[in-house]
């Protein structure tokens, strides 16, 4: 074979498709019993199926969808039109994109924040468009290629010349400034401030006072679903429909996909890749290995420091990986009855993307708690009831599944406590908080799945449970992701390439790192 791809997640499958399209013989090795990585649909309770890890689509590149013909293999997406922001005080915002409705909703908290929100989104759209354009480009080198200055590299990687003077200034604020400064600049009401502040949390783990943490707002502003810019959506059948479509497309191109094939070691001789050794001892050989695993696991565990330059290995040890995420899937016998909008008949808020956040201070307190090794109580919760839009997820009528992404939940717990011991207590704390907003939640829960940061690491191989394979902060992006000597997908080990979210442009179900890495490999040949 020509190429071995380690990891059958969405980026690994994307890379395999493009490599096969380039005429190479490709083998994908997936450690689990099913391909898909964190974009996977599974039954978590008898009769209840869900996207057990990632649960919304937006960032998947149109180029990947079209070039791999994913629609022909079963992929489609439905836009989630509404955003719902309940809190334990009985307040809420329900925004559906209708100007009159949304202005009326926000006017309950502020007379100016509807216009402020529109102005803010206009800036985010401008700056996000610049980011979007460079997602499918190889970042310029920081050294060795005629670019010796970081700012020059940023200028080449991000064509900010397209922005007007004010938008350039705002771009600089997003790139280097703390979220709190931006939020206080744009908004007046505490409710809207909380809503905007919460937008940085899903793929992030940072204080609102941390310079550079605002980039997470932009990373999630470049998406598109069904032609609608900035939209989020669900995939009928769950996120696994995406990766199953990618797998079918790859199989039709002759790609060999092996499941239950956990890679124990990347074989390196004289600084060159020779192949991989599987758990159990089987060895497979190829001159090129594309790793969809995160940088820590790839370099420090699969390759080993003995095969890396000392300085490079030390830098990878310092690459920050943690998103402090805990995922819960709930099997429900009926619909949640929200205290702020009572009723168990299907309504607009049930079909919304939900963010359960108390205030801007709540986010800061959750972060401070997690930094001490204490799971946030109460947590910030991003939620969705996908079965309200896709009845294929449950076997019985009028039953539902609910996804919860809970932040911030540290990988390392205080006082040496182990997550396997702490998880039942933390789950009950989370449910206690949800019950303040959904009084009937415990009455309708018939089963659940709770994945701690440790569980995410075990199940999906993500170091420290980091759903983005590395923090999305300025010194870990573009020409420095995950290191200047590996930011162009090739690495110091000849024949070893990165094709996962630990490479440019970073986390999320995008397909961009996989596509970019495959293009790089094909160019190198």
Written account of the structure:
Among the domains are: 3-36 and 56-76 and 235-320 and 467-524, 3-Layer(bba) Sandwich (FAD/NAD(P)-binding domain); 115-232, no CATH class. The strands form six sheets. A seven-stranded mixed sheet has the order 7-6-17-18-19-16-20, with helices on both faces. It has a five-stranded parallel sheet with strand order 11-2-1-15-21, covered by helices on one side. A three-stranded antiparallel sheet has the order 12-13-14, with helices on one face. Helix 1 runs parallel beside helix 10 (240-252), helix 1 (10-21) packs parallel to helix 17 (512-524) and helix 8 packs across helix 13 (360-371). It has 525 residues and is α/β, with parallel strands linked by helices. It has helices spanning 10-21, 62-67, 99-107, 113-134, 150-157, 165-176, 179-186, 190-198, 215-219, 240-252, 295-303, 310-317, 360-371, 419-437, 441-444, 453-460, 512-524; strands spanning 3-6, 26-29, 41-45, 48-51, 78-79, 83-86, 92-95, 224-225, 228-229, 233-234, 256-258, 263-269, 272-278, 283-285, 288-291, 326-332, 353-356, 380-384, 400-407, 445-451, 496-498.
Hey, roughly how much beta strand do the residues contain? 15-25%
CATH-level-2 architecture of the domain at 3-36 and 56-76 and 235-320 and 467-524: 3-Layer(bba) Sandwich
Shape: globular
* Largest sheet features: 7 strands, mixed
Oligomeric status? single chain
Q: State the secondary-structure class.
A: alpha/beta
Q: What level of helicity do the residues show?
A: 25-40%
N- and C-termini, Cα separation = 15 Å
What would CATH call the homologous superfamily of the domain at 3-36 and 56-76 and 235-320 and 467-524? FAD/NAD(P)-binding domain
Weakly predicted, low-confidence segments: 146-150
């Amino acid at each position: 074979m020509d190429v071995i791809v380690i990891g059958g997640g969405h980026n690994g499958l994307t890379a395999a498709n493009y490599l096969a399209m380039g005429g190479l013989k490709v083998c994908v090795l997936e450690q689990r019993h099913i391909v898909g990585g964190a974009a996977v649909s599974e039954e978590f309770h008898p009769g209840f199926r869900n996207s057990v890890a990632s649960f919304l689509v937006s960032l998947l590149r149109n180029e990947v969808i079209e070039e791999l013909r994913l629609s022909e293999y079963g992929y489609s997406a439905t836009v989630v039109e509404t955003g719902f922001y309940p809190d334990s005080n009985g307040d809420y915002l329900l925004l559906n994109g209708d100007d009159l409705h949304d202005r009326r909703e926000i006017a309950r908290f502020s007379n100016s924040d509807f216009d402020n929100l529109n102005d803010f989104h206009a800036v985010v759209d401008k700056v996000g468009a610049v980011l979007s354009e460079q997602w499918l480009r190889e970042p310029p080198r920081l050294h060795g290629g005629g670019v010796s200055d970081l700012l020059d590299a940023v200028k080449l990687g991000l064509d900010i010349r397209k922005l007007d003077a004010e938008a350039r200034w705002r771009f600089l604020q997003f790139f280097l400034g703390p979220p709190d400064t931006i939020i206080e600049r744009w908004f007046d009401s505490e409710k809207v401030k909380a809503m905007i502040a919460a937008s940085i949390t899903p793929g992030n783990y940072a204080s609102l006072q941390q310079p550079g943490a605002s980039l997470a707002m932009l990373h999630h502003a470049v998406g598109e679903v069904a032609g609608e810019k900035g939209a989020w959506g669900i995939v009928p059948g769950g996120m696994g429909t995406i990766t199953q479509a990618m797998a079918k497309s790859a199989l039709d191109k002759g790609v060999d996909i092996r499941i239950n094939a956990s890679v124990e070691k990347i074989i390196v001789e004289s600084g060159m890749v020779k192949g991989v050794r599987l758990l159990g001892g089987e060895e497979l050989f190829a001159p090129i290995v594309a790793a969809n695993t995160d940088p820590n696991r790839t370099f420090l565990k699969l390759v080993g420091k003995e095969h890396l330059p000392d300085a490079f290995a030390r830098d990878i040890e310092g690459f920050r990986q943690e998103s402090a995420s805990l995922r819960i899937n709930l099997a429900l016998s009926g619909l949640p009855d929200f205290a702020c909008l009572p009723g168990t008949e299907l309504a607009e808020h049930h079909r919304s993307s939900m963010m359960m956040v108390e205030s801007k201070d709540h986010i800061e307190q959750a972060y401070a708690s997690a930094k001490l090794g204490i799971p946030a109580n109460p947590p910030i919760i991003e939620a969705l009831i996908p079965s309200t839009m896709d009845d294929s997820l449950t076997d019985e009528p009028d039953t539902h599944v609910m996804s919860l992404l809970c932040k911030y939940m540290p990988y390392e717990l205080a006082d040496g406590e182990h997550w396997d011991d702490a998880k039942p207590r933390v789950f009950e704390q989370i449910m206690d908080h949800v019950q303040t907003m959904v009084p009937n939640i415990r009455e309708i829960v018939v089963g659940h799945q709770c994945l701690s940061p440790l569980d995410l690491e075990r199940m999906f191989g993500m170091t420290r449970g980091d759903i983005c394979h590395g923090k999305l902060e300025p010194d870990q992006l573009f020409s420095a992701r995950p290191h200047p000597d590996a930011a162009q997908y090739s690495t110091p080990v000849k024949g070893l390439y990165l094709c996962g979210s630990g490479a440019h442009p970073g986390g999320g179900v995008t397909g961009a790192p996989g596509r970019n890495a495959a293009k790089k490999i094909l160019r190198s040949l």
